[in-house]
Amino acid sequence: MSTLKTYYVITMWSGGKAAKKWVADLEPELLPHGNGIAFINIQTKLQVRMIGSISIETYESGREAMEAIGNAGDDTPLEKPTAKPKPSGNDRLF
Questions:
Q1: What is the 3-state secondary structure (H, E, C) of the chain?
Q2: What's the predicted TM-score (pTM) here?
Q3: Hey, where are the domains in the chain?
Q4: Which tens digit of pLDDT belongs to each residue from 11-46?
């Protein structure tokens, strides 16, 4: 039986919505003044320090955890572009 790997999903919140997510494989550390965290982004291998509205979720490796994490570490905003409705063929052109 293999050992499970722990992943941490760090979410930055703005206006009550998730604004950005990162994934770390080491537990985030509390900043010296206790008002934020520091962690290493698993994708870029760069250190990130942040303060503000933050949540940290812990997942064990495995299919369910990776599906739950999704594309959290891809460094793109979480807002999905809205799709334009497809024309039905009867729409006006002008």
A1: CCCCCEEEEEEEEECCEEEEEEEECCCCEECCCCCEEEEECCCCCCEEEEECCEEEEEEECCHHHHHHHCCCCCCCCCCCCCCCCCCCCCCCCC
A2: 0.64
A3: 6-69
A4: 999 999 999 999 999 999 999 988 999 999 999 999
